[in-house]
Structure formats: structure tokens, C-alpha cells
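Objective 1b: paired records.
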Amino acid sequence: MKEYKTKARDCILDYFKNHCDERVTAAEVYQFLKDNGNNVNLATIYRNLDKMSEKGELLKSKNVSDGCAFYSYTEKGDSCCKHLHLQCKICGHVIHLEEDLMNILYSYVSDKMGFSLDCKESVLMGVCSNCKAEAEIEGIYACHNELEHKAGICTCDHHASHS
């Protein structure tokens, strides 16, 4: 199917190139474009974000607490499908794993388990160093669930007494 180059797509791509270290929602893209005089329908933004995610131009991830979709730009294009990503459960920051580590992982999984990895939509969840450091400053030390509890995404009942 032929892909058309549209002004809306160009505006969205420019937005992500200028916010390449951020993770944003479709609503944030819409608001930015609207505030800057680009009258783009929200449905058009979603359609373009989905296409750009499928092509590997954007990484699509979901917020653990509410399932909200977030998008982040990847200059690597299709190569983003060849490695895993780490996503912080607290702030949503996405980290791309380095090629050297992925080569070791691919070899191990292939040689030891006879398994072929498909990393296109693979995200390992955890807590980033910034959120851990912030939690330590605030006196939360026990475990990652304490951090999740503070962020309102913990599903463990044993933290209710800490509220």
C-alpha cells in the first residue's frame, strides 16, 4: 500500500524529532500542534502514530497504571525492532538496550534454547535510577513495590498500612 506524505505526518514527525528524549501521549501531540497553529484532527494523529509505530519510527508503550499509550521517537528506525527496551513503571522513561548486550542475549537464547527473539514490542518493566534516587531522598527504601505504591500503581495489599 502506498504511503502518502502529508503535512500532518510531517508536523508530527517534526514534533518527535524536537522532543526525542520524551515520552508523550497523542493528546500532548495534539495540544502542541493546535497551540502552534496546526489544525490536525486527533483521529489523524492516532492514525499517524500507529503507522509510525508499525514502521519503527516511534516506540509505543503503555502506562502500567491506566493502559494509556505513550510514544517516543527513535532515530534508529527499524533497528529499534532489534533490541529490547526498559521502561520505568514510575516515570515511563524508556531506555534502549545496547547492541553488545543484545548480541549476547540473542546468542544465548538461540544456542541454549533454540529460540528466535522478536523484540519489536518487547519492553522490560522496572524502576529507573532517577526514580530510585528520588525515592531514597524521600525515605522509601524497602522494595520496588514501595515505589509503585507511592506512584499509585502498586497492586500489593501489604502496602496499604504505609499510606
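Objective 1b, second protein:
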Amino acid sequence: MPRLLLAAVPFPATARAVSGTAPGDGPGEGAAEALTRLARALRDAGHEVVHAGQGVDDGLVVAAAVQEDVEVVVLLAPASYDAGELAARLAGEDPSDGAETTVLVVATTDEQPAQVVRRVAAGTAVAVADDTPGDPLGGG
């Protein structure tokens, strides 16, 4: 199983304006609970999970991915998050050193942990259709 880095980018203030709370402000409300659910699901699937935390920026994600020598970065982000720059920075690692490319998987709090686990196992950042009932990452 690949070693992976799990992190969450900051969620925009609009999340607070719409719901009255920001992700992570209460039970079932956000990123903190979603990270916990996702970390548990990934560990249960046999992955070694390095937890980078909540509210981290792209620079920290790239630095941690290099330092921890991970194969996959799982990033919890709002649906509006543009992962293009982060993906480019992760792909910018020196391929001549024999290291494999770091795969970026972006998840939202609306996704079920099982969906993300399957995407990680498949080694792809492409969304997988899933009709499996269960709790979404956000618990709602």
C-alpha cells in the first residue's frame, strides 16, 4: 500500500456565511471531522497515513510530501478549490532521481471515505462514480 500525506486546505469564509459555521466548527460540520473519517478509512484499507493537518497551504503540502517521501497526497478541499498549481508543483519534483510521480487526489467533504479510498487504490485523481450508501466525509 502506498504511503500517503493527508491534509486540508483552508475553507473559504463563504462556508461560514452560508451555514453560520465554518468547516470544523461543530459536529458533522466540516474539515476536522472529515479528516478524521478519511484518515481512519485509509488506515483501515492498509495505507500508512502521514497527517499534515487542517488549514495548510500548498507550499506546506509540497514540502511535507517531499520530506515524508509519499506516493500520494490526499487533499481535503472545498469543491471550488483549483488544484492545478499544486498538481504542477508536485509533478515538478525531479524525475531524474528515480522517484515515482506523486499522485494528487482531491476530496471534498461531500464524498464518502470509501470513494476516496478506491481512488487512492486506483492511483488516480479522477472521480469515481459511486452509489454506495453511507456517511459522506462531512457526516451530513
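The radius of gyration is 15 Å. The mean pLDDT is 76.
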